[in-house]
């Protein structure tokens, strides 16, 4: 309850600029607040002017109706509600209409983008992969847990482009490979790393990249170059063409270069025939590193949308998320040569109602996923997307007629279920 209350007390995010760079803003105060929409648009255009992986940013939007049941609670986690899915809802202007006074929320079906590279993985790699190609990258090094959807997405995407993916997976190789672990093995080059070594991720990634003969291309250099000569491969012409070029991607692609794909998604969703620009909207998303939520927050801010990004914290503390948010903002702004200081506070970070150690599954969670799958045809997983579904469902029941619409972003990750079925046999 406490969490919910504070969610609505959030101050609108502000955009401030260093005055020496922008004459539109007051020159007297060194931390001037500037809400100039032209400045935001300019920044946005600069970010979106690039080559993308996804041919277009389109995605499906479904509507989930939430009906209260008069019976005993069907699920401890979801309450006594049932769900149904309208896969062809009226969007655009009709979004503001309420039908039968029934609670509902919308769900952005990014889980349908690709059989293996979907959800936020597809968005995070949207800007990144073309940059690697433009700079003639040959190898990618990244890491994740044994069932990491991110490492699997990187492996598949690299294989599709003729790049070599080196995947450092935490822990020991399981006896039977399944889910994302199996995909990582089929498409990439997997090395299992003892947990004590994995604990120092940066060191581990760098030393693995160092072990591959060739030149390491830094991701922040790629990001910077994307704002200058991103369509050219000039920076590589003076290097021998047969030398390997290795790119390191952080765990979960928690890098600033993951943000443009999410900003592109916000722009797509804000079109008049989809969610529009004037309807207050609460976007709900689940967070691991928090990068997805920050990308959505930057997009909403730059477009001046009355959208609130609410993120359920699943893998870190609020301090950790705020720090990461600040870091991503400063890296994106710094690299773009557009020294905007967006104060952190773009994302409303909230605790899950039933907190648990990251990666664990609580009793009743599989049943909740099962109920959702059976009633709506949407598969969520207990590690990530169930948490966003729970919150979207709660918020949709609290929203008053004419209030903000609730929109959940499906971040994908559904193959994770296979790994969980192996690990938590008694729950299935
Ligand atoms: C299904 C799913 N949802 C959410 C996340 C977390 O996204 P982020 O790290 O951007 O918060 C991940 C991890 O990449 C994921 O696999």
TrEMBL record:
Top-level division of the source organism's lineage: Eukaryota
InterPro entries in the record: ACCD_DCysDesulf, TrpB-like_PALP_sf
GO molecular function term, any single one: D-cysteine desulfhydrase activity
Keywords linked to the UniProt accession: Pyridoxal phosphate
UniProt KW Ion transport keyword: no
The protein's required cofactors: pyridoxal 5'-phosphate
Protein family according to the UniProt entry: Belongs to the ACC deaminase/D-cysteine desulfhydrase family.
Annotated protein name in UniProt: Tryptophan synthase beta chain-like PALP domain-containing protein
């Amino acid at each position: 309850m406490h969490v919910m209350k504070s969610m609505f007390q959030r101050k609108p995010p502000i955009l401030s600029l260093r005055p020496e760079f922008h004459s539109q803003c007051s020159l007297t105060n060194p931390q001037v607040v500037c809400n100039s929409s032209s400045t935001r648009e300019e920044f946005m255009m600069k970010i979106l002017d690039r080559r993308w992986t996804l041919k277009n940013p389109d995605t499906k939007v479904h509507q989930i109706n939430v009906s209260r049941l008069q019976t005993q609670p069907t699920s401890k986690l979801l309450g006594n509600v049932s769900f149904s899915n309208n896969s062809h809802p009226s969007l655009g202007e009709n979004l503001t209409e309420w039908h039968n006074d029934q609670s509902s929320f919308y769900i952005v079906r990014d889980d349908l983008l690709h059989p293996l590279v979907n959800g936020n993985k597809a968005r995070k790699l949207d800007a990144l992969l073309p940059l690697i190609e433009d700079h003639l990258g040959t190898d990618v090094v990244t890491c994740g847990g044994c069932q990491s959807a991110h490492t699997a997405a990187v492996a598949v995407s690299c294989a599709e482009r003729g790049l070599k993916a080196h995947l450092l997976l935490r822990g020991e190789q399981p006896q039977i490979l399944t889910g994302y672990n199996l995909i990582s093995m089929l498409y990439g080059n997997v090395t299992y790393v003892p947990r004590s070594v994995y604990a120092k991720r940066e060191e581990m990634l760098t030393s693995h990249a160092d072990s591959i003969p060739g030149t390491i291309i830094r991701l922040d250099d790629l990001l910077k170059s994307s704002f200058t000569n991103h369509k050219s491969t000039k920076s590589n012409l003076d290097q021998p063409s047969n030398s390997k070029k290795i790119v390191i991607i952080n765990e979960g692609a928690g890098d600033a270069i993951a943000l443009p794909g999410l900003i592109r998604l916000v722009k797509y969703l804000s079109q008049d025939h989809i969610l529009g620009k004037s309807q207050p909207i609460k976007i709900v998303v689940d967070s691991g590193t928090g990068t997805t939520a920050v990308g959505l927050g930057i997009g909403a801010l730059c477009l001046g949308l009355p959208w609130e990004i609410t993120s359920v914290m699943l893998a870190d503390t609020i301090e950790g998320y705020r720090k990461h948010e600040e870091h991503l903002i400063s890296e994106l702004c710094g690299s773009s040569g557009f020294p905007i200081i967006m104060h952190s506070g773009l994302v409303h970070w909230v605790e899950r109602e039933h907190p648990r150690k990251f990666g664990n599954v609580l009793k009743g969670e599989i049943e909740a996923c099962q109920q959702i799958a059976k009633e709506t045809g949407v598969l969520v997983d207990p590690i990530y997307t169930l948490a966003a579904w729970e919150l979207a469902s709660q918020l949709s029941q609290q929203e008053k007629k004419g209030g903000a619409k609730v929109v959940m972003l499906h971040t994908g990750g559904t193959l994770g279920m296979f790994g969980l079925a192996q690990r938590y046999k008694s729950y299935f």
